[in-house]
Amino acid sequence: MNQASYQVDDKPVLGRLENIYYNDVSELGAIPFPGKIDTGAETTSMHADNIVVTSLNEKYKGLKTNELLKTIVYELGGPKERLDKDHFTSKEKNIQATVEFTIPNPYTGADITITRPLFNISSIRSRSSPEPIFRPVIEMALTIGGHKVTTPVNLTNRSTFSTPFLVGRSYLQGNAWVLAGYDYLQTQKEAQIIGRKERLSVLDIPVNVSMSLRNRYSILNAQNVKVDQKSDTVSFDLIGSNNKKKNMQLPIVRMLNFKDYSTPLVYIPIEAANGFKEHILVYLKDRSKNSSQLRLGRKSLSKFFMIDPSREYLLAAKTEKFSSKTTEVISAKEDILFENIKLSAAPSFAANTSKLQVEKFEVLEKQNKVKITIKKDGLQQEILKPIEKTIVVGKERRPVIEGDVTLNAKPFTLLLALDIKEDSQQPDIFLGRSFFSDKRVLNLRSENILTAHAPVKAGYIEVVQIGKLAFPAKLDTGADVSSMNAVNIQRFKDKGKEMVTFTYENKLGTKKEFTKEVVDVMRVKAKAGEKAKERPVVIMDVTLNGETKKVRVNLQDRSRFDYSMILGKNFLADDYYVSSEHIYLIEK
Fold it and tell me: What is the pTM of this model?
C-alpha cells in the first residue's frame, strides 16, 4: 500500500477493477478486497451483513433499520433521487443513529462486527416497487493504490455481485482518474512473472499449476465437495500432485452459477518456493484426469501475475517482478501487420512455432513455395512465400513460412506455420512460445496494449455525436456495454436478418428514428417474481473527441434517467482517463 503506481496530475489512475483496503478495521486491514471502479455511480457501496440501525433519540424509540430509515427520510421531506450530506447528517438533525453491521473475513469466514454513526441515508430506485430502497450510509477510510480517502459508503448485500465494493463518484471526485480498459492497474508493477507451468503448494499440499486464457475463474482439484448452507461453508478433499489428500473446510465467498450446476467460490492460500504467498479465488472441480491440480484463470492471472510462455517453473527460483524498462508487454488480443495486412493476434501456449490461419493455401512443390489466400474485412489477397520448413502436427503436415510482420511499430520477421481457418471468431495469428523468448510477457489486465495511444482526459459527462445528432452522454466505467435511450422498439426480420426500428429521444427535445440490424441480445437478470428482460444490441457510429468508433449499444428505455446515453467499457477502453470531478473536459 505504497504511493500510487500510475498517476496523472498527481492523482492515481485506477483500473476498472482494483484492490481496496479497509484502513480502520484492524482485522481486515491486510486483505485486498476487489472493487469495481464506476464513474457512473453516484455513491460508493460495500457489502455488509446483519445491518442494524438504531437511534438514541426518544422520538424514534422502538424503530429499527428499514422502518427507522424510512421514517427519517419522510420526516425530512420524502425520498429523493439521492439523500446525501448536502441534505443532512445525523449530527445536524439530532438523529443520534448508529449502524452496526458485520463484514465476513473472506479467508476465515469470521464475522467482524463494526459500529459507525449513521452519516446519511441513500434512497435507491426499486425496479419492483414504487417505494425506494433505503440504505444506511456511514463514513469509511478506504485505500486504493496507496491513496487513502475517507468517504461516505452505503451498506447493502452484494453477495450476488462479483465484487464486494462498488466505488462511485463519492470516492473518486477529486481523488482519481479511471481507465476503463484496464484491470488492477495499480498493482501491475508488483506483478510476479511466472512460466506457462508452475508448482505451488496449498497448505503444504503440492499442486501442479497450468494457465488458462479462456476461463475467468481459477479451478482447484477437489473431491467429495459438500456445501453446508446453514454455516455457508464447503468441505472437500484437496488432492495434490503426489495424490496426498487433505480435507478442508472453507467459507463460501459466493456461488458461481453455470448453465447446469452451481459451485462454491472460495479463497485458498497459495505459496511458492521463492517465498511468494497469496490468496486466490477458485471454484472446486474434480481434475483427477488432468495433469494440473490448479488451473489459474484470467481473474487470478490479471490480479497477481504476468506470464512468460517460453519458460516454466519460474516460481521455484528467485522472485522476478515486472519491469516496464526491460520487458515488453503483450496482451491476449493484439493487432498485427502481416505483409501490410492488419490481422488479429493472440498468444498460444500449445506450440513453439507461431501459427497463421488463412482461408486456404496451395503448396507448389517444384518451386518449394506456397500460395496463401487471406480474407480480411471483405477483401481477398494472395501471397506467394518460400517454404522454410515443414512441421508435422498430428496427421497434418504444415508448411512454415517467414513472414514480415509489424507489432508496436516494430518490423521483424516471424516463422509462421500455416493452417486453415475454420472459425471466423478465432484470431488470425496464434503467437507461439518462441515469440515470447525475447523479454516479452503476457499481460491479461487489458487488450490491444501495444496499439493503444495516449489516453485523453475526459469528464464523466461529454458531448457525443451520432450522425448529425449531438447530445450529452455519461461516461460510465462500470458498464460493460454502451447503452442508449430507445422507445417504440419493434423487432422484425428482413431477408433473414434480425432487425429493429426504434425512436431515440432526449430531454433536450432531440428525436430521431433508427433502423438497425440486431447483432446480439442482452438478457438482464430479474429479481424474484420478475421476468428477465431482453435488450437488442445494435452497432452505432459514435464520435467523441473527433474520433468515430463502431460500438455495440444496447437499446433500453432510459427516459427516467438524466442522460440518454452511457458509454461503457466497450467504447472507453484505454482511450480515456475519466474524471469524476469534471464535466465537458473535451468540449472545453
Answer: 0.91
